[in-house]
Amino acid sequence: MKKPPFHKSVLFTFRGIIWILRNERNFQFHILGLIINLFLIVFFELSNIETAMIILCCFFVLVTEALNTCVEKICDYIQPEFDSRIGIIKDLAGGAVMLATISSVCVGILVYWPYLKLLFH
Ligand SMILES: Nc1ncnc2c1ncn2[C@@H]1O[C@H](COP(=O)(O)OP(=O)(O)OP(=O)(O)O)[C@@H](O)[C@H]1O
């Protein structure tokens, strides 16, 4: 197959992002998390390094969610019927999102905790 020109390849990547934004509820939920965190970054006036850590964590979860959706789509394409091997593949992809989410929540607690303490004292 002929390779598309660079600008078209970039457009295709945005097509993927727009598709997942429109169709995947979990991805939309994580986008809401990103928006809330952007608000908190401004509200608490986080340092550059704290902001970088929070944004990295948000995108870490978004990336794993996109890859999880990708795995689910491939699985549904190659095996639409019940298959225990497909089940474990999907569980693993879902598990990756869960791990990313747990680590991101830990980072969030560590970063926001001192600011929350100041706010409520
Ligand atoms: N074809 C299948 N064969 C066996 N088990 C399956 C199959 N499809 C889904 N499952 C099981 O159901 C779970 C949910 O799969 P599904 O494709 O419905 O994802 P989902 O509910 O959209 O998940 P997510 O919330 O991660 O997007 C899988 O983790 C797996 O355990």
TrEMBL record:
Cofactor binding note from Swiss-Prot or TrEMBL: Mn(2+), Zn(2+), Cd(2+) and Co(2+) support activity to lesser extents.
Chain residues that bind ATP: 24, 72, 90-91
Main localization, broad class: membrane
Biological process terms in GO annotation: phospholipid biosynthetic process
Keyword Transferase: yes
Catalytic residues, chain numbering: 65 (proton acceptor)
Identification of the protein by name: Diacylglycerol kinase (ATP)
Species in which this protein is naturally found: Epilithonimonas zeae
